[in-house]
Amino acid sequence: MAQRIDFHFNVTNRLLYACRVVRKARANNLTLAVWTKDRHKLDFFVRQLWSFEPTGFYPHVAADDELAAETPIVYHTDETLLPARDVLILLDDEVPDNWSVLFGRFGRVIDIVGTSEAERQPARERFKIYRSAGMAPVAHDQGGH
């Protein structure tokens, strides 16, 4: 089970915020995995990762790519393909299938939640699910960042 689950909520742009999390994690030499079931959202995240910082480069590949084992950032819509990493970033409104096993591969899970009620309500449900399983998720209000 993940050592820590953090909910970063009131995030204006989830995908751009995820890129900022990547930047901070990589500055600390951490490896990451990114998951959502939504292929369109994941593709947009990957495009943002290329362009959100003009001088930055963050090596990333799909989790089923032959270079995934040696690439610090992996992503996929199939959570079963995500290899162990320091951090898992969740960009989905649903709890991943078999989440308790999945989370065991990561030291930390960061669940990014937008500002709309359509994103906040499912996040509340995820928070309750994790808490009822004996985890202690921590909420971080990003105040619209």
TrEMBL record:
Cross-referenced InterPro entries: DNA_pol3_chi (IPR007459), PolIII_chi_sf (IPR036768)
Domain of life according to the entry: Bacteria
One Pfam family, short name: DNA_pol3_chi
UniProt-recorded name of the protein: DNA polymerase III subunit chi
High-level lineage: Bacteria, Pseudomonadati, Pseudomonadota, Betaproteobacteria, Burkholderiales
